[in-house]
Design a protein that fits this description.
Elements: H1 3-9, E1 16-24, E2 27-33, E3 38-41, E4 47-53, E5 55-58, E6 69-75, H2 80-90, E7 96-103, E8 115-124, E9 128-134
Parallel strand pairs: 2-4
Antiparallel strand pairs: 1-2, 1-7, 3-4, 5-6, 6-9, 7-8, 8-9
Length: about 160
């Protein structure tokens, strides 16, 4: 039985520490859920300090509907978060999130493979920011991706 299996099955001394790395333009924010900052080693071997904040994370559902979205809410009491998210929503092409989880007794590596997601949408109020991030929706993607159409390939008109 792995540590994660034991962690999910019982109420031992370990807890899951959820973290977010948020890229907005040239800025990177390192956040963790809870009251205490943590210093953990990333999958590449570098050490990073995650800042504790009021955050709530809803993981993507494991299903086959094609839209697996991670939703999270961050406290916006000081107003810093809404400014960053406003910038991210203005330019969604540069906004992405990496979700990692650690086990509280072992911060030397993530407990499972990190998720890399792009920010899709969001909104903010005076007290919180709600963000939706997700993978590419594979079910709404055309296949084959490259279409052979008459404007690009006029010779197709003569194939019969």
């Amino acid at each position: 039985m792995t540590v994660l299996d034991r962690l999910y099955a019982s109420s031992g001394s370990e807890v899951i520490v959820e973290t977010l790395q948020i890229f907005v333009g040239n800025n990177t924010y390192w956040l963790t859920k809870g009251w205490d900052d943590i210093t953990a080693k990333l999958e590449g071997g570098t050490t990073q300090t995650f800042t504790a904040c009021g955050i709530d994370i809803a993981l993507p559902a494991r299903n086959a509907d094609g839209t697996q979205d991670l939703k999270f809410a961050i406290s916006n009491i000081d107003g810093k978060v809404s400014t960053a998210i406003r910038n991210a929503l203005a330019d969604l092409s540069t906004a992405k999130i990496i979700y990692r989880n650690f086990i509280s007794t072992d911060l030397t590596a993530p407990a499972s493979r990190p998720f890399t997601l792009t920010i899709k949408s969001g909104y903010w109020t005076a007290t919180e920011v709600q963000i939706t991030a997700g993978y590419m929706n594979i079910l709404d993607t055309a296949w084959p991706r490259y279409r052979y159409t008459l404007p690009e390939h006029p010779g197709l008109r003569y194939i019969s």
